[in-house]
Amino acid sequence: MADIICRNSILFDGSGKSPIIADVAITDGKITAIGSQLDGIHGATEIDCQDLWLMPGLLDIHTHLDLELELAPELPEVVRHGTTTVVISNCSIGVTYGHQRRNGEDPIVDCFARVENMPKSVLSRVADTCTWSDSQGYLHHLESLPLGV
User: Fold this and answer.
1) Would you call 65 exposed, middle or buried from its count of C-beta atoms within 10 A (0-12, 13-18, 19+)?
2) For 113, what's the count of Cα atoms within 13 Å in the CB-facing half-sphere?
């Protein structure tokens, strides 16, 4: 018995192929069966997904979410769109090497303010929390955040 069965969904499998009409069984939070009319499987909760899309989580490979992780590490706005995985710190805007303040200049805050149109007062508060100065320190910091939902 599955915990949940999504019946008659328009299933996109992430391969790029055209969608199919399928049932999806979920047990302990994992997909355990996919097929057309999974008649032998019953779920505690059955959801009629006729005319509804079902797809794997989406991946966003270009984000400017580095500072957003400091404000809301669960990224509720991103998850609400169906995105379940993001790549951060892969462009010139990022906090991988800390706040990078030197000689009264604040390049990360200035750059985020211009590109993301975020208030400097908010950005400065976030930059003030940067305690790392290298990528290893940043990774250690990320491990301490309650990322995702």
Assistant:
1) buried
2) 14
Per-domain boundaries in the chain: 2-56, 59-143
84 φ, ψ (degrees, to nearest 5): -115, -10
Burial class (CB in 10 A: 0-12, 13-18, 19+), 108: buried
pTM: 0.62
Q: Which residue has the tokens 């991988």?
A: 96
Task: Using alpha carbons only, give the angle 135, 146, 74 rounded to the nearest 5 degrees.
Answer: 100
* Helix, strand counts (H, E) of the chain: 5, 7
**Strand 43-48 and strand 83-86: pairing?**
unpaired
Provide the residue-wise pLDDT of the chain in tens; the chain has 149 residues: 899 999 999 998 878 889 999 999 999 999 999 998 787 787 789 999 999 999 888 889 988 888 788 888 888 888 887 788 899 888 766 788 887 888 988 888 888 888 888 888 888 888 888 888 888 999 999 999 888 75
Top-level class of domain 2-56: mainly beta
